[in-house]
């Protein structure tokens, strides 16, 4: 008598354009293995409240699975829930493992970023310590691309494609009038500059990342030099850009009453781009503006990278296969085999080596003046974004 | 001996995803007619400074013309220049007509919105009064869709497609957490709500247009009702939404010291969406956020409507044909023949009947409570946007 196996899957953290593609991969491999596939609603948190959905039944039609693959955001719902350690609160582990047993879970897959890998690490360790034979495997996703242990993360390529495309469109837009102007495009990424760096694919004049301390005077000097020889200066700015003393630029105005007086009502403007636009206007006396790419960076699926969606799907599948083969406390990762032609393979890494660490852009991939990126970085990003701008030569 | 004819063309006003498609249409028809095609750099203003480009030569390769068709923003550059009346300043007319004669222009095409049609009207009238046989024809473009005399304007369909797509993506994004939230998506259109109305294609809960006075209490009441039965409330807000006394919502906070005190630092927040998000948070006590779609609305070519690009191209061609046939002081317009199947034809209208008038959304196409649009409006917009969301059913 064969016993049906059961795969439990959840999504956690911020949504991306590719996280549902990983979910589709999990469902696809689960169905292929003849397993029951159960989804947690709103991650671990909803699951603790008993909220589940039968995914193999909901996606029995392959057309629905294709649609799920291309649907942005977290279809199961998400949560931002940091699992306490067992010593802080063991009861939550007892409740979770009771539920795992109740539904007969053989494998628990969690699709998410850093906190999700922390969840997998904790559940895996607790299970091992308490004789559970459930497998816990993490499937990475984050537009921030800041997870260690993997060449890059699903979600990043699509977000980067949106950012590069938007930077190109906004550059076209900024060039229309015959006047000097500086445009700051603010890009997500509080701690890592990977996403802001992807703007470099659209060839802006300056890119500012959190990894390179910002010298505001040097920046304005560079902008002034550029304005002397061209009309339009484009600057990609990570929301997490900081000055040498470690202060976030977006907090500079609020931090000091003097700044507020000097630049008017700036204290209430939160964005680094807005603040820089106001300062540049004040000091350089030219037209400036700031565009925040905002929420669309993580959900713009109509400009999703097919490479990204495909890798996200394959990592979901690899996660199920590994978990059902008994691997646990692991994260599915991508290893880059070559850049040209672009080729990756999936791998398994110890999730403990991933959780609670952040991978920033290496300083060697940032130009010496801290205001641009190197060809190495572009070569790294380009195949993930899967986008080559074809452009008319600009006039003049 | 045949004399080569000459078509002069300029672009004016804000850029759109389709204005270069009209330019491509002008070049294409000009080349077809064996004419020389000369482009004004930065509109009438750059042209007055003698800035021109030979377009038939620059676009001799049809592949470049195809690329131009899909390139967002104004490739020739633009200006915001309101031509004075001849009685205010005749010298500018003398300079312009001297230049027209100098290059041997037979036809002057101007691609733009309301101000551009005003320019065509003035130049046409001046030419007629002074015995010139140059033809002046306007080719409409504006994402605002607020020109009279035409069923709709090129640029609107693509901007509306971006808005509807973004509204759908942001709705997916807003649904991820298991909590009550209200998201305001702020959409361009200071005087006409056409663009904001297009958000209705993505089925938000509420749409607020400048044409329907906003009652803030009624809005918050409706939001509260919705929050009682669902988690996520989505509101599309035109930046030009006004209260019954005609005040712009985005100016409400700044207008009154009391508002500033009551809601903190609101005086410096310019957007209607931001202000409503702050008020809703204060009064309803739930999570709120505001997303400004910003510049991408007018330049996001990757989500351009093919119907829009195609109509923009045809209007450019029709403009050249009409002008070379001796028509003057006209605007090329679109007449809708039928909705299903969607069919339009080009027409010529007197540009004087267009200039300096604004076409808003008819009150009959706005729902009785002023917080949504009717099926008639959706039927009007749908074929222009050329976009049908295919979506998975949401869970719960």
UniProtKB/TrEMBL annotation, chains A, B:
<dbReference type="GO" id="GO:0005737">
    <property type="term" value="C:cytoplasm"/>
</dbReference>
<comment type="function">
    <text>Catalyzes the phosphorylation of D-fructose 6-phosphate, the first committing step of glycolysis. Uses inorganic phosphate (PPi) as phosphoryl donor instead of ATP like common ATP-dependent phosphofructokinases (ATP-PFKs), which renders the reaction reversible, and can thus function both in glycolysis and gluconeogenesis. Consistently, PPi-PFK can replace the enzymes of both the forward (ATP-PFK) and reverse (fructose-bisphosphatase (FBPase)) reactions.</text>
</comment>
<feature type="active site" description="Proton acceptor">
    <location>
        <position position="144"/>
    </location>
</feature>
<dbReference type="GO" id="GO:0003872">
    <property type="term" value="F:6-phosphofructokinase activity"/>
</dbReference>
<dbReference type="InterPro" id="IPR050929">
    <property type="entry name" value="PFKA"/>
</dbReference>
<dbReference type="InterPro" id="IPR011404">
    <property type="entry name" value="PPi-PFK"/>
</dbReference>
<comment type="subunit">
    <text>Homodimer.</text>
</comment>
<keyword id="KW-0808">Transferase</keyword>
<feature type="binding site">
    <location>
        <begin position="142"/>
        <end position="144"/>
    </location>
    <ligand>
        <name>substrate</name>
    </ligand>
</feature>
<dbReference type="GO" id="GO:0006002">
    <property type="term" value="P:fructose 6-phosphate metabolic process"/>
</dbReference>
<feature type="site" description="Important for catalytic activity and substrate specificity; stabilizes the transition state when the phosphoryl donor is PPi; prevents ATP from binding by mimicking the alpha-phosphate group of ATP">
    <location>
        <position position="115"/>
    </location>
</feature>
<feature type="site" description="Important for catalytic activity; stabilizes the transition state when the phosphoryl donor is PPi">
    <location>
        <position position="141"/>
    </location>
</feature>
<keyword id="KW-0418">Kinase</keyword>
<keyword id="KW-0324">Glycolysis</keyword>
<dbReference type="InterPro" id="IPR022953">
    <property type="entry name" value="ATP_PFK"/>
</dbReference>
<dbReference type="Pfam" id="PF00365">
    <property type="entry name" value="PFK"/>
</dbReference>
<keyword id="KW-0479">Metal-binding</keyword>
<feature type="binding site">
    <location>
        <begin position="188"/>
        <end position="190"/>
    </location>
    <ligand>
        <name>substrate</name>
    </ligand>
</feature>
<feature type="domain" description="Phosphofructokinase">
    <location>
        <begin position="7"/>
        <end position="313"/>
    </location>
</feature>
<feature type="binding site">
    <location>
        <position position="114"/>
    </location>
    <ligand>
        <name>Mg(2+)</name>
    </ligand>
</feature>
<comment type="pathway">
    <text>Carbohydrate degradation; glycolysis; D-glyceraldehyde 3-phosphate and glycerone phosphate from D-glucose: step 3/4.</text>
</comment>
<keyword id="KW-0963">Cytoplasm</keyword>
<dbReference type="GO" id="GO:0047334">
    <property type="term" value="F:diphosphate-fructose-6-phosphate 1-phosphotransferase activity"/>
</dbReference>
<protein>
    <recommendedName>
        <fullName>Pyrophosphate--fructose 6-phosphate 1-phosphotransferase</fullName>
        <ecNumber>2.7.1.90</ecNumber>
    </recommendedName>
</protein>
<feature type="binding site">
    <location>
        <position position="14"/>
    </location>
    <ligand>
        <name>diphosphate</name>
    </ligand>
</feature>
<dbReference type="InterPro" id="IPR035966">
    <property type="entry name" value="PKF_sf"/>
</dbReference>
<feature type="binding site">
    <location>
        <position position="239"/>
    </location>
    <ligand>
        <name>substrate</name>
    </ligand>
</feature>
<dbReference type="InterPro" id="IPR000023">
    <property type="entry name" value="Phosphofructokinase_dom"/>
</dbReference>
<comment type="similarity">
    <text>Belongs to the phosphofructokinase type A (PFKA) family. PPi-dependent PFK group II subfamily. Clade 'B2' sub-subfamily.</text>
</comment>
<keyword id="KW-0460">Magnesium</keyword>
<dbReference type="GO" id="GO:0046872">
    <property type="term" value="F:metal ion binding"/>
</dbReference>
């Amino acid at each position: 008598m064969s016993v049906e196996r059961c795969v439990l899957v959840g999504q956690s953290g911020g949504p991306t354009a590719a996280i549902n593609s990983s979910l589709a991969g999990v469902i696809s491999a689960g169905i292929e293995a003849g397993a029951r596939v159960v989804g947690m609603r709103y991650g671990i948190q909803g699951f603790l409240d008993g909220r589940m959905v039968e995914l193999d039944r909901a996606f029995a039609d392959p057309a629905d699975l294709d649609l799920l693959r291309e649907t942005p955001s977290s279809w199961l719902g998400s949560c931002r829930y940091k699992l306490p350690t067992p010593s802080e609160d063991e009861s939550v582990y007892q409740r979770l493992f009771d539920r795992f047993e109740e539904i007969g879970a053989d494998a628990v897959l969690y699709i998410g970023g850093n906190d999700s890998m922390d969840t997998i690490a904790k559940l895996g360790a607790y299970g091992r310590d308490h004789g559970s034979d459930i497998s816990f495997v993490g499937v990475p996703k984050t537009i921030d691309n800041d997870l260690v242990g993997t060449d890059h993360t699903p979600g990043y390529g699509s977000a980067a494609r949106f950012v590069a495309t938007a930077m190109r469109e906004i550059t076209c837009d900024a060039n229309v009038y015959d006047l000097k102007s500086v445009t700051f495009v603010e890009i997500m990424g509080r701690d890592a500059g990977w996403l802001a760096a992807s703007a470099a694919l659209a060839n802006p004049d300056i890119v500012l990342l959190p990894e390179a301390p910002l010298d505001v005077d040097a920046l304005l000097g560079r902008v002034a030099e550029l304005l002397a020889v061209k009309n339009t200066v484009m600057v990609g700015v990570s929301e997490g850009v900081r000055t040498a003393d470690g202060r976030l630029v977006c907090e500079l105005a609020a931090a000091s009453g003097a700044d507020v007086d000097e630049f008017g009502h700036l204290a209430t403007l939160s964005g680094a781009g807005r603040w820089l636009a106001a300062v540049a206007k004040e000091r350089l006396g030219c037209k400036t503006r700031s565009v925040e790419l905002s929420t669309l960076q993580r959900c713009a699926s109509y400009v999703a990278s097919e490479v990204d969606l495909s890798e996200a799907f394959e990592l979901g599948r690899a996660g199920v296969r590994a978990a059902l083969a008994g691997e646990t406390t692991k994260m599915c990762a991508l290893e880059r085999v070559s850049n040209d032609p672009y080729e990756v393979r999936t791998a398994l890494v110890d999730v403990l080596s991933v959780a609670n660490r952040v991978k920033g852009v290496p300083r060697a991939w940032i130009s010496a003046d801290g205001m641009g990126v190197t060809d190495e970085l572009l070569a790294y990003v380009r195949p993930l974004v899967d986008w080559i701008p074809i452009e008319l030569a600009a006039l003049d």
